[in-house]
């Protein structure tokens, strides 16, 4: 048995344990700058972990999409366009899946306020699907009109983790009421996603996360944009924190490891479930492209929920939407690995449909202002190379 095999075996076996309690926190899309170290967990020892096979020659595809960031936060308001009442529900940055149910609950309420019961939803991503389902379940007749539907939507290219305040707003530019609105959206979504746990195909699941670092963990640095961070404070009662593991209590060859547990979305299965439920419950969907707001006149419905995501920048000429490019390398799924790792700003998250690896950047500025959706293989190879040796070496003691 060579050295590498020996070390891999050591990783699989983990280290002998003292017993286990688990504490955690969201290992968000742009994962672990957010969780701040809390108490050390001297009694928790990581159980044996299957190594994640992270090497560039295992890349099967690379996907890219843009997060629709607005400094003021998502646009969630009513506008009258000609004879149409338009409810905007777009601009959720890196939090669109996480906040979808909460944001769409508000949008659906606005849509039904005038008493009309025949509603059009534009868009079939995270926000369009949840808006349409909620409206249908409230008894409305609902038609989705969209240029793309899953798997072509940008939502389909998301990492798939609970990340409710990832690039959701600029903390210095939001209205004073926004933190409370955010909390309302986040709590509604968090509760709703928990009704989707334990289903076949695991559209939603809890998974462990390990945030590794060579140096003592420190709060996230603020970059050129002061991205808002609300979760740790405002959801502290329902989202378990990350905790620092004791030296020797984990198999990773780094000085500091924080452990957490967070919600994960299998976006493939989640999208399928939402779309199928919508259609099975009587919803309709039509492929349609709108080039200007005047095109809305083509719709017979007088109430329209606008869930066009990044597409709203062109359609609505909303230049307050800033693209934040994100790229994911996909590796073959490893059902035996049910935990995510974060190291030197790179995330690796095993999902049932593949392992996603993503450069997250130091202060969430990675990809900011870049609207290029062409894959950059070198970026993905560099991201994967960050983990070289992480699954092959024995744990080293903290100095
Ligand atoms: C790399 C990456 C990773 C991410 N990871 C996560 C994560 O882990 N967790 C999380 O919560 N969020 C994550 N996000 C953010 C999340 O993906 C977005 O916030 C979310 O997808 C936005 O959803 P949406 O429905 O508003 O937009 P979209 O998914 O873009 O959907 C827009 C819909 O509108 C339609 N449309 C647009 N323009 C027009 C038009 N002119 N005419 C007709 N139809 C139109 C589109 O065809 C589509 O159907 C990530 C984003 C990126 C880029």
User: Termini, distance in Å?
Assistant: 30 Å
Largest sheet: 9 strands, mixed
User: Approximately how much helix is present in the residues?
Assistant: 10-25%
What is the total domain count?
Answer: 2
Q: What ligands are attached or bound here?
A: flavin-adenine dinucleotide
Order of H and E elements = HEEEEHEHEHEHEEHEEHEEEEH
- Low-pLDDT runs of 5+ residues are 1-10, 12-37
Total beta strands:
15
Overall body shape: globular
What oligomeric state do these chains adopt?
Answer: single chain
The total of helices stands at 8
What is the residue-mean pLDDT, rounded to a whole number?
89
SS-derived structural category? alpha/beta
Strand content: 15-25%
Question: Roughly how many Å is the radius of gyration?
Answer: 21 Å
The spatial strand order of the largest sheet comes to 1-8-9-7-13-14-15-12-2
Description:
- This protein is of the alpha/beta class and 399 residues long.
- It has 2 domains: 7-67 and 206-265 and 323-385, no CATH class; 68-184 and 268-322, Rossmann fold (3-Layer(aba) Sandwich).
- Helices cover 22% and strands 24% of the residues.
- It is built from 8 helices and 15 strands.
- The chain has helices at residues 3-13, 96-112, 126-137, 178-193, 231-234, 267-280, 312-315, 377-385, and strands at 40-41, 61-70, 75-81, 84-90, 118-122, 141-146, 204-213, 243-245, 256-265, 284-287, 303-306, 321-331, 339-343, 346-351, 354-359.
- It has a 9-stranded mixed beta sheet. A 6-stranded mixed beta sheet has the order 3-4-11-5-6-10, with helices on one face.
- Helix 2 packs across helix 4 (178-193) and helix 3 (126-137) runs parallel beside helix 6 (267-280).
- The two termini are 30 Å apart.
- The site of flavin-adenine dinucleotide has 40 residues, from strand 2, helix 2, helix 3 and strand 12.
């Amino acid at each position: 048995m060579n050295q590498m095999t020996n070390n891999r075996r050591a990783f699989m076996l983990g280290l002998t344990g003292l017993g286990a309690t688990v504490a955690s926190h969201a290992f968000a899309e742009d994962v672990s700058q957010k969780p701040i170290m809390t108490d050390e967990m001297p009694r928790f020892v990581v159980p044996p972990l299957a190594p994640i096979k992270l090497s560039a020659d295992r890349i099967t595809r690379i996907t890219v999409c843009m997060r629709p960031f607005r400094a003021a936060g998502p646009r969630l308001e009513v506008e009258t366009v000609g004879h149409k009442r338009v409810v905007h529900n777009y601009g959720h940055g890196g939090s669109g899946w996480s906040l979808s149910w909460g944001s769409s609950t508000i949008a659906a309420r606005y849509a039904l306020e005038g008493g009309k019961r025949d509603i059009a939803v534009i868009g079939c991503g995270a926000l369009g699907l949840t808006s349409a389902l909620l409206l249908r379940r409230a008894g409305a007749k609902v038609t989705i009109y969209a240029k793309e539907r899953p798997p072509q939507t940008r939502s389909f290219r998301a990492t798939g983790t609970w990340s409710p305040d990832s690039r959701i707003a600029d903390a210095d530019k939001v209205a004073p009421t926004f933190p409370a609105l955010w909390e309302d959206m986040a709590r509604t979504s968090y509760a709703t996603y928990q009704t989707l746990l334990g289903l076949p195909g695991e559209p939603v699941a809890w998974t462990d996360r390990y945030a590794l670092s060579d140096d003592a963990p420190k709060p996230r640095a603020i970059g050129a944009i002061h991205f808002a961070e609300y979760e740790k404070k405002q959801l502290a009662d329902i989202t378990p924190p990350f905790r620092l593991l004791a030296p020797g209590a984990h198999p990773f060859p780094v000085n500091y490891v924080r452990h957490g547990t967070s919600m994960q979305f299998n976006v493939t299965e989640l999208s399928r479930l939402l779309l199928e439920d919508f259609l099975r419950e009587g919803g309709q969907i039509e492929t349609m492209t709108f080039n200007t707001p005047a095109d809305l006149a083509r719709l017979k419905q007088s109430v329209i929920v606008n869930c066009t995501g990044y597409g709203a920048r062109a359609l609505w000429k909303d230049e307050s939407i800033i693209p934040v490019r994100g790229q994911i390398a996909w590796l073959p799924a490893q059902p035996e690995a049910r935990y995510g790792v974060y190291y030197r700003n790179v995330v690796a998250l095993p999902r049932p449909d593949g392992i996603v690896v993503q450069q997250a950047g130091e202060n969430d500025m990675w990809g900011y202002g870049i609207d290029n959706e062409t894959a950059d293989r070198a970026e993905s190879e560099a991201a994967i190379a960050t983990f070289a040796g992480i699954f092959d070496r024995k744990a080293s003691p903290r100095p």
